[in-house]
Specification:
single chain, alpha+beta, binds 2-acetamido-2-deoxy-beta-D-glucopyranose
Length: 198
């Protein structure tokens, strides 16, 4: 790719990231990730239970459905409810480092670079602890963290365990907030009621 185009795209991506999150000084932490990560077992539906606040995610009932498309890549379908409407986006996840398959990259547009999506820990059936960090010349870094569940909510003890995993890896999750997973069927139900009354 043309160097200038590449630079322009990086700059746009960078500004988008910086705008969304508070930067921290220094390079990204190097957390440990899920050993022997099995992408296939990670597929399916995950709900966002808690996260570090990010400006580009304002909706509620955020969930992601991963579908294996080939060995080492997956279709990513995320949805949220924003202002009473279900919004969906599609992207691609790839294993970026064959030696460490828990280090995925996700891109929601072919013009954007893959952003890191690292599975720090998962049991595949209840909980996934996910981290994303981008650094800028190791001068500062911007990060995102999510606690995902196979159910819309997780027991408090499980959330504490997930937070401990972040903290053991020197990731600050003091600003982590619970994601709203309430009334997620309402929009759909209302529409169904409305239609059946016609
Ligand atoms: C997830 O995607 C697969 C493949 O497209 C589909 O069969 C399945 O119904 C989806 N699950 C949910 C909960 O959307």
């Amino acid at each position: 790719m043309d160097v200038q185009v590449c630079f322009a795209i990086s700059l746009v991506a960078l500004l988008a990231v910086v705008d969304a999150q508070v930067p921290h000084w220094g390079g990204c932490p190097e957390p440990s990730t899920q050993p022997a990560f099995n992408l296939k077992r990670f597929m399916g539906r995950w709900f966002e239970v808690a996260k570090l606040p990010a400006q580009f995610e304002k909706g509620r009932c955020i969930e992601t459905n991963f579908t294996l498309t080939s060995e080492g890549s997956a279709l990513v379908q995320s949805s949220e409810i924003l202002k009473g409407e279900v919004r969906k986006i599609e992207g691609t996840a790839v294993v970026e480092d064959q030696r460490n398959p828990a280090k995925l990259g996700i891109s929601f547009s072919y013009v954007l670079p893959y952003t890191p999506y690292w599975i720090l820990s998962t049991d595949y059936v209840n909980l996934a602890v996910v981290y994303s960090c981008t650094d800028v010349f190791r001068i500062f870094h911007v990060d995102f963290a999510w606690i995902l569940g196979r159910d819309r909510t997780l027991p408090g003890s499980t959330i504490q365990r997930a937070k401990a995993i972040f903290m053991e890896n020197r990731i600050d999750v003091s600003r982590m907030i619970a994601s709203s997973q309430e009334d997620c069927g309402r929009t759909v139900r209302n529409r169904a009621v409305f239609q059946s009354s016609l």
